[in-house]
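Chain particulars:
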Amino acid sequence: MAEKLTRVSLTLPEELLKELDGSLKARGYASRSEAIRDSLRDFLADYKYRKGLKGQIVGVLVLVYEHDVRGLTDAIIDIQHSAGEIVSTVQHIHLDAKNCLETSVLKGPAEKIEKLVERLEGLRGVKQAKLMIIKK
């Protein structure tokens, strides 16, 4: 029996939608819906993996964000300072006039690192947050 589907509405910036449509065509996706479902599965798999991490770990967090979003840069810095015991170093790069990239080397208890990543990735203006585990 087919899985029950529920229709949801999604609001996207026009440029992101154009980029999505271009990548769908290049990859041979049948529809936007199928691509969004695949993306959500990947998002949830990453979430489950991060929640399953235990003990002391070392990782690198990569953030891409819009620096002109009011208060975002200050919020990022405040969060990083509050987690000073696990943030070893931060490198900041200006990608273009609007976007910045930061890499942070993190070392400490998995639960604290996960909490830090959750706080940062949930901020308005953060476009991407990827945690790569170097050592478990």
The chain has two domains: 14-49, 55-135. Residues 14-49 form one domain.
